[in-house]
Amino acid sequence: MRVLILGGDGYLGWATAMYLSRRGSAVAVVDNYFRRCASTELNREPLLPIPNLHQRAALWEAVSGFKVDVHIGSVCDYPFLLDLFRQFQPDAVVHYAEQPAAPYSMMGHKEAVFTLTNNLVSTLNLIHAVKEVNRDCHIVKLGTMGVYGTPNIDIEEGYLEVEHKGRRHRFLYPKAPGSLYHLTKAQDGDMLYFYCRTWDIRVTDLNQGPVYGIDTEESRQDERLGPIFNYDDIFGTVLNRFLVQAVAGTPLTVYGQGGQTRGYLNIMDTMACVELALLHPAETGQYRVFNQFVETFSVNDLANKVKAAGEKLGLQVTIQNIPNPRREAEEHYYNPAHTGLLSLGLKPHFLTAEMMRGMLQTVQKYKDNINSSLIYPKVAWQ
Ligand code: USQ
Question: pTM here?
Fold first, then answer.
C-alpha cells in the first residue's frame, strides 16, 4: 500500500512512518515542523533532542533498510499538497497534520486562529486533493475522544440512534468539546462526513484518547528514532507528564479534584489501530468512526499508579491537587464504547505495573535533560 502521512514529524507521525514502512508499505511523510518550531519558540523543548526528518529517515534506512520519503511543507498549501498527491499517488492518507495541543489552542487569539485555520484548512485541502487525484484513496484522520465531552449517558462509537416522536434516525453522536483544539476536531469530522455524503469519499475517523509512551519497537533500535516526547504544560499529555514529574522529584500535578476520566492507550496501540484501519478501509461514501483507546482511568488513578510504580523504583513520589487551569467536569459519568478496533483484531497493551516500570526507567536515563520549570501549568482556559 502507498501511504502518505501528513504530520510525519510529530509524536505519532514519525512512529507510524517507521511502523508502516517496516510492514511493507511505501511511505511518504510531509510536515511543516510546526511542533518543533512551537516547542522552541515557547521554550518547551522535548525530553530528547530530535534529528530533523531527513536525518531520521536516513537513520531509519541505515538501521532497518526501509525507506521513508520526506517532504517539508504545509498541508495548508494546496498546490504543494496537490503536487505531492500527483507525484506519490497514495492509496491511503493518515492525517496527523493538525495542531494537537488543547492548551496551545487556548493561549490567545493568535494561537486560536492558527489552530482553527490549520486544522480545518488542512482537512479541506486533503479532501479536495483526494477528489482531484483519486477519490478511492482512504482518508484515516486522527480524531479525539474529546469531541464527545463527558455526557451523562454512554458514548457510542461515532453515531447515536435517536427515537423522536415515534420515528428513528441515526445521527453523528452529539459533540461537546472542551477546548478550541477539541472543537476543531469536531468541526473537521462534520466536514469529512459532509464530503462523504456529497463526493463519496471514504473516511475513517479515529477518535483517540490521550496517548502515553516514550518509544516503540522500531525506535528502540536507536534512541534518535524516538518520538518527540514533550512533558511540558502545553504539549505533554498527562501520563507522560506524570512519568517525568516522578523522575524529577516534583509533585504530580493533578488538576482540580482529579476525577476527570479519559480513555488511554499506548503509542504502540496507536500504530496497530492505524494499521487495522488501513487494512480494513471504510466503504465508498462511508464516514466510519472508531473510538480508539484501551482502558479508562481518572487522573487520580494515573497519579496513584505512577506513585506506586515510582516508589518500587525507590523514587519519592508525591501527588498535589492544584487549581484546574481548564474548564472541565472533575467528577462525571464516563462509559464510551470501543469495540470497533477490537473486532478488527486489536491486541491491546495494558498499563501494567511492568509497563509503568519500563517507562519510568527509560525516563530515568534522561533525567539530566528534565527542565522542571516546564512542568507547572501556565495556560488557563479563562
Ligand atoms: N491533566 C491533569 N494534570 C496534568 C495534565 C493534564 O490533571 O498535568 C488532566 C487534564 O485536565 C485532563 C486530562 O488530564 O482532564 C487529560 O489531559 P491531557 O493533557 O493528557 O489531554 P488533552 O488535553 O485532552 O489532549 C490530549 C492530546 C490530544 C488528544 C486528547 C485525547 O494532546 O491531541 O486529542 O489527549 S482526549 O483527551 O480524549 O480528548
Answer: 0.98
